[in-house]
Each structure stands twice: as structure tokens, then as C-alpha cells.
Amino acid sequence: MPHVSTDGVASRVVVVGASLAGLSVVRALRQAGHRGDLVLIGAEAHHPYDRPPLSKQILLGDAVSDPSTAAIALAGDGELADLGVRTRLGVRACGLDLAGGRVLLEDGTAEAFDQVVLATGAAPRRPSSLPPLAGIVALRTWDDAVALHAALRRARRPVMLGGGFIGLEVATAAATLGRTPIVVEGAPTPLHRFGEQVGRAVAAIHRHQGIDMRTGRKVVAVEGDGRVERIILDDATVIDTDLLVVGAGAAPATSWLRGSGLDISDGVVCDDACRSVSDPRVFAAGDVCRWHNPLFGRSMRVEHRQAALRHADVIAAAIRGDGAASAAFVPYFWSDQAGTKIQFHGHLQPGDTVHAVHRDGARLAALYSRDGVLTGALTIGAAGWSARLARQVAGRADPATALRLLTGPPHQRATENSHHPLEST
Amino acid sequence: MDVRKQFHVTENLGDEMRIELDLGKCAGHGVCALEAPEIFDIDDESGLAVLRTERPEGREAAVNTAVRGCPERAITIA
């Protein structure tokens, strides 16, 4: 029997996607006092688990047989029971019937909703030019990570297509496992959108750990008989390989929403409360959510762990009737590469200025801006700087002020430490 | 080396709220320092979180957000 929530509505909320974003919505709703029915639908059979470790510890073999017993488990049977959520794990949603207020599932059943939260994440992009050969893999799920770990241990010559964060983390794991991986990146450096100097610094870190970086090179052919055997680069270099890891970014998993009537142009298009602009009963959280972030005055979609948590809090507040709920925050992500942490706070758009790069020994900070306002800060091996710069991005500081925090005398830093832009307005 | 720090804080209602910061897990993401800057900071030398104050009154919500936001789940409230 449905409970009646404190606002008088026996609201039934269906959450599609049982990863961090979906689970966090369930938690946030209960924490906010929501008493109505909750249903959590997940395509994977596993209990909710955390994804960032997949390309890090799990690839190195820090794995056990099942993610629900591993350190990356997000919630087990006990918590799910305590949350009073009905789970439908291992069954994929295949359609959204807005007129009927139902989520349609692949097993032919449906779940009726008063509100629905779309948290289906993103799926790896696979360039259409890649032939259907065995040994060409991508990384997204627990099952992918366990399989890739085994493949890396067997591989004679693993190649990563793409020098983005995932490609570089997989390369790091391969090198740690004793392989000599090759990274092929079309841009002049890895992580090129963060600027030339950052890219060169990252390339140097990876070359230092024995990774063969082929930057500025494109793959023109992938060949093999049933299984990948070699790739050919645009300078006619032939690389024999038995494992090709595709790190070509991810696309929001919205194909199942085609024809639903929702605006799904690069994610579920939402307002600042993560509510679909097409239907007020529909919300989106995590990688699939394209929302208006008032802090930046921009629409954005990010594939970061921390954004999923923020979206969940805002959605719970909005469903509970808080009209002021707003996802105004500084996106954050990190990457562990060759024993070095790369951290980024902010949001980059093409055309943002790489304003300044500051180095101090092995530490590096790069600042990005648009129209004189700090839009992002990337650090390499400098967690202290990262935390300070995050506050500057949140405070919409100008780049010169932020840079002075890194270069100024100690007393200036102490002053900054007691100033909190988040609280000042 | 002492890898675990503890202290006690008091909620408005007088309930005891204890924050535990496990420096064995902390990886210096700084999410805590962003969510609750009066409570947490990142130490320049170690690159790890430090507790700034033992008087976080009125900031319980921010502390809770920091707990949920920590990617390493290094902060717990007992």
C-alpha cells in the first residue's frame, strides 16, 4: 500500500538506471522524507556499483567475483531493503510512454510512474569505421573491466585508440601489468582540449612509464582475420596488435527514448532543476542529463561521478516540491595516471581561453577562462592547488587573482584559505 | 604514522555527531573542501584532507554533502 508523503501526494517514482545517479536519487528522496513507492530499474544484473575504479584498481586485478562484495559496491541487499525500493535488476528499459505514464521494459512488463528519473548513463562511442573483429573492446561496465583485465594480461601488444582519460588510464594499467602499450591519438598531444602545455606534460608522464605515445596520428585501417591483428596509421606505420581498446568518448544512453516526445539532443535536455524541458514529470540525473547550470550560465552535460550526486539532491528536492531546487555547482573529475592525479574543476567549452599555466617542480596548474571569468582549473599532482582553485571557480574569480594564490607569498594563501566564495553571496 | 583522525561535533539539537576522516583512504580530491570549506581543507604538503575546525555548528548539511561526495568514501559520521 502506498504511503502518503508529507506533502499529501502518494507519488510513485520510477528511477531508470541503477548506477550511482539512480541509487543516489533513491537515497536522496528517502532522506528528504519521501514516503511514496520507489522502483529502481537497472539493465545490469549486478547491484549498484561505483564506476571510477573500473579503469583503475579493477583493471589491475583488484577484483573479486562479484561487484556486490567488492569495495566498489554502492549498496547491498540490506540498504536496498532499508530504502524500501523495489528493484528490477537485469532488465533493460526500452521505451517511455508519456501519455500512459509508464516505463516499458524489455521483458514485456511496464512500470507506472507519477514521476520518472532517467539515469541510464552513457555508452562508449564506437567509430563506425571499425570492423567487427574480436579483440576490439571498450570499457564501461564491471563485466567489461573484468574481461579487459584478463585480456590485458594475455595481450602481447595492446593498443589504445584515443589519448583521452580512459585510454590513458587503461594504458597505465597495461604498463603496470608489464605490457608495453601503444596509445594512438589524432591530436598533437593527449588531452589536447586542455591546452598544449597540459598535453605535453601528460604525454611526458606516460612516456616516462614506458608507454609508446603516437600522437598526431590517425588510424587508417584495422585488419585481421576474425580477430584484430594489425592497425595501419596515416604515416603508413603498421602496428601488430592483438587487443584494441577504444577510448573514443561516450554518448548519452538515450536511444531508448527516441519517439517518446522528449528533447534528447545530446542528453535529456533539462532546466536547472534537472527537470525535462519537455515534460514536468520527467527528470534526468548523471551522465544522461543535460542541464542548465546557473553558476556558469550554460547548458552542460558531464560524465562525472560528483555530478550524479548533485543531480540526485536537486531532483529529490524538486520532486518534494522545493521550487528553488537548482543544480548550480562546479563539476569535478579526476584521473589517476602513472601514479599521478589529474584533477579538473569547472567546465570547458570550445573557445575558452587557456589563460595561464603555472609549474612548481612536478606540480602543474592550468587555468581556463571566458570573458575574463575563470571557467576551469586543471592540476597535475597538486591536490592542494586543486582544492583552492575549485573555490575560485565557484566564486567566478578572474584568472589573474586565482593565479596569484599559487604564486603569492604564504600570508596571502592563508588569507584565501579563510575566504569561502560559496558562502559569500 | 597516525592515519586516522577523529573529533566530536555537536548538532544543534544536542545530539553528538562524530566525523571520522580516514586518511588511509583519502586521495586528495578536495570535494569535501569545496562542499564544506569551513570544516575541511587540503594540506599542501601531503595533498590529503585535514579537519580545520572542531566547531562546525550549523554546517551539518554541508558535512553530509561532503560525506556523500567523497569519491573514496573516506569520511564517515558516527
UniProtKB/TrEMBL annotation, chain B:
Keyword Iron-sulfur assigned: yes
Cofactors required: [3Fe-4S] cluster
Keywords: 3Fe-4S, Electron transport, Iron, Iron-sulfur, Metal-binding, Transport
Organism per entry: Actinomadura napierensis
Protein name per the record: Ferredoxin
SUPFAM superfamilies: 4Fe-4S ferredoxins
